[in-house]
Amino acid sequence: MTSDSSWTHLDPDHNPAMVDISAKPVTVRTAVAGAELWLPPGVLAQLRDGDIRSPKGPVFQTAIIAGTMAAKQTSGLIPFCHPLPLDAVRITIQPPEGGILRIEAMVKTSHKTGVEMEALVAASVAALTVYDMCKAFSPAMEIRRVRLLNKCGGKSDYTADE
């Protein structure tokens, strides 16, 4: 079992609490998260010129906007996330390869705490937006491997193993 000191979101009485970051220095912090979405043949057949057009509009472009908006709303979704001023949010969607659509969300801030959750929320919501916009073609899509790919600028850096 893990010691209580490793649970950062507990106060001394073991109640849930937001981490006190007041003594931490401001640094530039960046996080990149990824999500994969398996697209069945019925959805892949809709791909034209690097995007899918649905009755709701251009799918990948809409997903980029939705993911960006989600990153900015993370503290309203995850109870102990600090509201952060975001310096940059960049979402990329790579053309499907082997039926897998790869989404990456990079989020950057100059603040006292990291932006891992903002990047994870952005990648997740972008994937969910693709699903929402393409479910009429096939509801068999699968969102897979939502994960932190790397982070830097805090007390420790991280890069995921492939």
Mean pLDDT: 91
Largest sheet: 5 strands, antiparallel
β-strand amount: 25-35%
Helix content, binned percent: 25-40%
CATH topology: Alpha-Beta Plaits
| Overall domain count | 1
The structure class reads: alpha+beta
Rg, Å, rounded: 18 Å
Name of the top-level CATH class: Alpha Beta
Fourth-level CATH superfamily: Molybdopterin cofactor biosynthesis C (MoaC) domain
> What is the 3D shape?
elongated
Please, could you describe this protein's structure?
This protein is of the alpha+beta class and 162 residues long. The protein has one domain: 2-Layer Sandwich (Alpha-Beta Plaits). 25% of the residues lie in helices and 34% in strands. A 5-stranded antiparallel β-sheet has the order 5-6-1-7-8, covered by helices on one side. Strand 3 and strand 4 form a beta hairpin. The chain is elongated. The mean pLDDT is 91.
Summarize this structure as a short list of keywords or feature phrases:
162 residues; Alpha-Beta Plaits; five-stranded antiparallel β-sheet; three-stranded antiparallel β-sheet; 4 helices
Q: What secondary-structure arrangement, pairings included, does this model have?
A:
Elements: E1 27-38, H1 41-44, E2 47-48, E3 51-54, E4 57-58, H2 59-72, H3 74-77, E5 88-97, E6 100-111, H4 116-134, E7 142-152, E8 158-159
Antiparallel strand pairs: 1-6, 1-7, 2-3, 3-4, 5-6, 7-8
Helix pairs in contact: 2-4
